[in-house]
Specification:
The complex is a heterodimer. Chain A is α/β, with parallel strands linked by helices. Chain B has a single domain, classed as Dihydropteroate synthase-like (TIM Barrel, Alpha-Beta Barrel). An 8-stranded parallel beta sheet of chain B has the order 8-7-6-5-4-3-10-9. Chain B has a two-stranded antiparallel sheet with strand order 1-2. In chain B, helix 5 packs across helix 6. Chain B is globular and about 70 Å long. Classes of the chains: A alpha/beta, B alpha/beta. The interface between A and B is medium-sized, with 10 and 14 residues.
Chain lengths: ~290, ~325
């Protein structure tokens, strides 16, 4: 079962962005409630870099959301001052700090907060030189991250490693390395949890088809023990897959990943499209916007 | 232990395609290995070079490029014939620069009649290339397709934005389309799928990956072509198993290096410079998988022909 973090409360949203900036509680609370009811395990509050008055903003959002849901929250900003302000007013189950990456200033600011507020942390594998290029570089980054975090008194179990999912239509080798890294992680970093920004896999692909790539890639990551994912919580089929309610599809995708040819005739149309997406995500077929047709 | 040379495993083959009609039609494609890897597979048809002519007198050509065509550049028919008779062109590429709405803005009817005149006057395959203005190309190339019914022209560039209308005309009048995408393998595949869905048959599609000159980002074009061939030959990607056309002359000769005179002595002889830039660009494209090269200068073409002969000589 994959722990699901709902992604929709986001400063980038066309409707919620302005509501956040103008401190309109109603749309924010409606969304938080809807995410809660849709089954979110965590609710992500993404206020972006929040360079100006981020502390006031996150304080307000945390309090506002708390009035309508008791689900644990994922506080999502790169501004450490805002992060601490949000944590100060936070109540309820352990919060998730989203995220701490490997640039020295981020580590220096982020790790003490994780410890001080007894939070979980997303360990984003973004290094000093930016995006890791392959599985090995991800391995090096995770080793460094764990070393620094452990040194700060944070156990592996509290770290949710984010290997960084990138769009399939940009660079297939990154999609493959991310999977490969996931398959190695339990050996490199015993006890660590994982999370991914799932929807990024389908960034840049036709809007009405994105869900099939999202669902498919999640299953492929589940194969390697995916612990959690930041997702579109309103995708009901995705929810079912994450919560063990569509084992038939999961088994079929696993078989396809192994190069087998399982019988697809029993799948409904939706699941068939997910199964058809395996090939472009393993790199066996080159992605094009019409991948479902070819 | 004896040394075993690693060998690429190929599972696909580039489609063979006949371009043009009659005794001078050419066949391209059919490769079963990477370009010139004759120790691993076959290249049953050697790459072909199409000589470029313009539909209107060229305005900004370097003197070195104009010299071989002195006296014919104001007459596309004479120009095409000179390419064939004097420089042994196996194909002609007629660039419809005069139709550019930002330039002479010649009309569809006038242009179609001109294309027909050229097509009637020569017996080698004819490539007809628009200006990549969707609206204008749609208008012009559709009329060209109709007027030249049965000539088996190669029509380009056909892009996602105008593929439906130009593609439909090409199907109706039995021409080949050059499917053009901006240096992006995923988009190249996508356009081939779209053209296939439209009804363009597999023997009437050639890929234009968009190329550039040496020193002007050729490595991007090279890399995309290389990956197209890898997907086609080693991943059985049927939607990429098409020959590739490289419309390179205009890219080379518009660079400042090709156009510059003798002002800077470090730049060497201006005549040789352009020719070598064109020949080197063409060689890069051949090594990346080009099947048809659109070239301008007879000396550059000669150099490339020699290289092709050398690379494919039987031991």
């Amino acid at each position: 079962m994959v722990v699901l973090i709902a992604e929709s409360l986001n400063i980038m949203s066309k409707t919620l962005g302005p509501a956040l900036r103008e401190r309109q509680a109603k749309p924010i609370q409606e969304m938080a409630k809807a995410e809660d009811e849709a089954g979110a395990d965590y609710i992500d509050l993404n206020i972006g870099p929040a360079r100006k008055a981020g502390d006031e903003l996150l304080t307000w959002v945390v309090k506002t959301v708390r009035e309508v849901t008791q689900k644990p929250l994922s506080l999502d900003t790169t501004n450490p001052v805002a992060m601490e302000a949000g944590l100060k007013v936070y109540t309820g189950g352990r919060p998730l700090i989203n995220s701490v990456s490997l640039q020295p200033d981020r580590l220096a600011a982020g790790l003490p907060l994780v410890k001080k507020y007894n939070a979980y942390m997303v360990g984003l594998l973004w290094g000093q030189e930016g995006m890791p290029r392959d599985a090995a570089e991800r391995g090096m980054l995770v080793a460094e991250l764990l070393y620094k975090a452990n040194e700060a008194g944070i156990p592996n179990e509290d770290i949710w490693v984010d290997p960084i999912v990138t769009p399939v239509c940009v660079e297939i080798n990154q999609v493959k390395s991310c999977l490969e890294f996931m398959s190695m992680l339990s050996e490199i970093a015993p006890g660590c949890k994982t999370t991914v920004g799932l929807s990024n896999i389908s960034n840049g692909t036709p809007a009405h088809l994105r869900t099939y790539l999202n669902r498919c890639y999640m299953i492929m990551l589940m194969r390697h023990g995916l612990y959690s994912a930041i997702v579109d919580i309103f995708d009901k089929e995705l929810f079912k897959i994450a919560k063990g309610q569509n084992q038939k599809l999961v088994d079929i995708v696993y078989q396809l990943m192994d190069g087998k040819s399982p019988d697809l005739s029993g799948l409904n149309e939706e699941d068939l499209k997910v199964a058809k997406s395996v090939k472009v995500l393993t790199g066996d077929a080159l992605y094009s916007h019409s991948w479902l047709e070819s | 232990m004896t040394f075993a040379r690693p060998k690429t495993v190929y599972s696909g083959k580039i489609k063979e395609m006949k371009l043009g009609t009659g005794p001078k039609a050419v066949t391209v494609g059919g490769e079963t290995s990477y370009p010139f890897y004759l120790f691993e597979g076959e290249m049953p048809h050697l790459p072909r070079i199409a000589m470029e002519i313009f539909d209107s007198p060229p305005a900004e050509w370097a003197p070195a490029a104009l010299e071989p065509f002195e006296g014919v550049t104001d007459d596309p028919v004479a120009w095409a014939k000179k390419c064939i008779n004097d420089y042994k062109a196996e194909m002609i590429c007629l660039q419809l620069v005069g139709t550019d709405p930002n330039g002479l803005n010649k009309g569809a009817e006038e242009t179609a009649q001109l294309v027909k005149k050229v097509a009637d006057a020569i017996d080698v395959p004819l490539i007809v290339w628009g200006t990549a203005n969707h609206e204008k190309d749609t208008e012009v190339l559709r009329r060209v397709a109709e007027v030249c019914d049965g000539k088996r022209l190669i029509l380009g560039p056909v892009e996602e934005g105008d593929h439906k209308k130009i593609g439909a005309s090409a199907i109706g009048y039995k021409h080949t389309v050059a499917a053009s995408t901006p240096i992006d393998i995923n988009l190249a595949k996508q356009l081939n799928i779209l053209l296939g869905n439209l009804g363009v048959s597999d023997d009437s599609l050639i890929i234009d990956p968009t190329v550039s000159a040496i020193g002007y980002g050729i490595e991007y074009a090279y890399s995309v072509m290389e990956r197209i061939r890898m997907a086609a030959l080693t991943q059985q990607d049927a939607k990429l198993q098409f020959p590739i056309i490289c419309n390179l002359a205009k890219e080379v000769w518009k660079t400042k290096e090709a156009k510059a005179g003798t002002e800077d002595p470090r730049m060497g002889d201006p005549k040789k410079r352009g020719i070598l830039l064109e020949a080197m660009t063409a060689m890069c494209m051949l090594l990346a998988g080009g099947d048809v090269l659109v070239m301008r200068h007879p000396d550059a073409i000669k150099l490339v022909r020699e290289m092709i002969a050398d690379l494919t000589a039987k031991q």
